């Protein structure tokens, strides 16, 4: 394969793609074209992984019972999280929309299989957590692929992972990386929703230490 010389136009479009890759919580409910979803899921096959272990394991959560269990899990964890704040911060937290689980047409639970023998342990002997980092790398590529197709994704991390594993009946050795809501966003913005809501602000510049 020849090396590609990417154009300035491509680099500008890629920069735009990264800026528009937002954590989406507000979805339209219309279904997603399965061919488009499959094309985006192919990003996992192109993702880097430590030792070429490919430890990601994906569960598509489609049934009413499974989705109901996941939603109840989120609601319980969210109430617990709210109890950790007080005063104005608690009020601000209570107003945040932190998942699109009731609207998103596609929902995925993504796990890391730390028991995989693929890759024969290369690169993970001293840092086994690199398998999970590999899963996150794959998710990032998937996220960008979705945005390029006009779709959005929201990462739900306010969950009890052990309860979700039990509800989805997955192997105990798998570790939850995240629960993902996927669909067409109600709006597109280059600003994080948490910033728009006043919860937090992005840094103005990258902080790099030199030693």
Structural write-up:
The chain is an alpha+beta fold. The chain has a single domain, classed as NADH Oxidase, CATH 3.40.109.10. 39% of the residues lie in helices and 13% in strands. It has helices at residues 8-20, 34-41, 43-46, 64-82, 87-94, 130-148, 161-168, 193-196; strands spanning 56-60, 106-113, 152-156, 174-183. A four-stranded antiparallel sheet has the order 1-2-4-3, with helices on both faces. Helix 4 (64-82) packs antiparallel against helix 7 (161-168). The chain is globular, with a radius of gyration of 19 Å. The relative contact order is 0.23. The model has no long low-confidence stretch (mean pLDDT 95).
List the topology elements.
Layout: H1 8-20, H2 34-41, H3 43-46, E1 56-60, H4 64-82, H5 87-94, E2 106-113, H6 130-148, E3 152-156, H7 161-168, E4 174-183, H8 193-196
């Amino acid at each position: 394969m020849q090396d590609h010389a990417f154009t300035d136009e491509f680099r500008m479009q890629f920069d735009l793609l990264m800026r528009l890759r937002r954590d989406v919580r507000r979805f339209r409910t219309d279904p997603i074209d399965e061919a488009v979803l499959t094309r985006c899921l192919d990003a996992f096959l192109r993702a880097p992984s430590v030792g070429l272990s490919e430890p990601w394991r994906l569960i598509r959560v489609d049934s009413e019972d499974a989705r109901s269990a996941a939603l109840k899990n989120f609601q319980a964890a969210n109430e617990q999280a709210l109890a950790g704040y007080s005063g104005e911060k608690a009020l601000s937290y209570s107003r945040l929309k932190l998942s699109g689980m009731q609207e998103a047409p596609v929902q995925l639970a993504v796990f890391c299989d730390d028991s995989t023998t693929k890759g024969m342990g290369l690169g993970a002997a001293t840092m086994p957590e690199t398998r999970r980092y590999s899963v996150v790398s794959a998710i990032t590529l998937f996220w960008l692929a979705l945005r390029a197709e006009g779709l959005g994704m929201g990462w739900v991390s306010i969950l009890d992972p052990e309860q979700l594993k039990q509800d989805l009946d997955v192997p105990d050795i798998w570790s939850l990386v995240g629960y993902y809501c996927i669909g067409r966003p109600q709006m597109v913005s280059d600003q994080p929703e948490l910033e728009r809501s006043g919860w937090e602000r992005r840094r103005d510049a990258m902080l790099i230490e030199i030693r």
